[in-house]
Amino acid sequence: MPDASESVEWKNNPDMKLNMKCYLGFPLKLPNGNCFGTICVLDDKK
């Protein structure tokens, strides 16, 4: 997402209080394909 502050979906996200601009999320999956978590990177710069 290029700029989360411009996204309606992110408007009420608690991370927006930290002036989040960029977000990258990646699912972590078990060998059987089940998702057990995510790695998320947040940044306040575009």
Question: In words, what does this structure look like?
Answer:
There is one protein chain. Helices cover about 0% and strands about 35% of the residues. A two-stranded antiparallel sheet has the order 1-2. It contains no helices and 2 strands. With about 45 residues, it is mainly beta. It has one domain.
Percent of residues in helices comes to under 10%
Give the spatial strand order of the biggest sheet. Answer: 1-2
Mean pLDDT: 84
The helix/strand class is mainly beta
Report the uncertain regions. none
CA-atom Rg in angstroms: 13 Å
Task: Give the overall shape.
Answer: elongated
Total strand count, please? 2
Number of helices: 0
Q: Termini distance?
A: 10 Å
| Percentage of β-strand residues | 35-45%
Q: How many discrete domains?
A: 1
Largest pleated sheet: 2 strands, antiparallel
Please provide the ordered H/E string of secondary-structure elements: EE
List the helices and strands and how they pair.
Blueprint: E1 22-29, E2 35-43
Antiparallel strand pairs: 1-2
Task: Summarize the model shown.
This protein has 46 residues and is mainly β. It has no helices and 2 strands.
Q: Which features would summarize this protein structure in a list?
A:
0% helix; mainly beta; 37% strand; 46 residues
